[in-house]
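Researcher: Next entry in the queue.
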Amino acid sequence: MVSMPDPVELFFAGERHVLRCLNLDDTDRLIAFFNSHNEETVRLRYGYFFKEMTVARARELVGVDQCRDLALALFSFGAEGEPVIDAIGRYFLLPSGRSAEMAFIVRETKRRLGMAQTLLRALAATARVRGLTKLVAQVQRENRGMIALFRKEGATVKSNLGADAVDISLPLKPVRKRSHA
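Model: Structure for this entry, 181 residues:
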């Protein structure tokens, strides 16, 4: 059985959030989340700017095979109690089957609260249980906050001469099996 993270209630700046896997019911929420971003946020996350998150693209992003890949979100709750996406962390398994590429995006008004770190740790914990040995990412060189977070969590950062992005590699220690004595 493949490990899936259970929903968890967390608080950021005193506000209740739920960390859970994305699903197809979150399609409209993802589109609203994307529409809340400024041009710089979109460029830093995706490496280029595009103006619209289509329904088809949103469905692809929320409808991933959570047993293979992983897409987590932190949700706050609007005035009517409806879930609102504040941050997303995801990884996609690479062809080797032993590592995955990760990416994060946090609502501009919710930055510096620990959301990206929470998502990174949740992704890494699930990846370890699933037997992955490494998470990798490409981060725009000017995204100093994410680069600092990756370093703090034990990742190596490799600059490529002339490139706008740096390569991140986060080794994962294997989960120790408990012996039954």
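Model: The mean pLDDT is 90.
Researcher: Noted, moving on.
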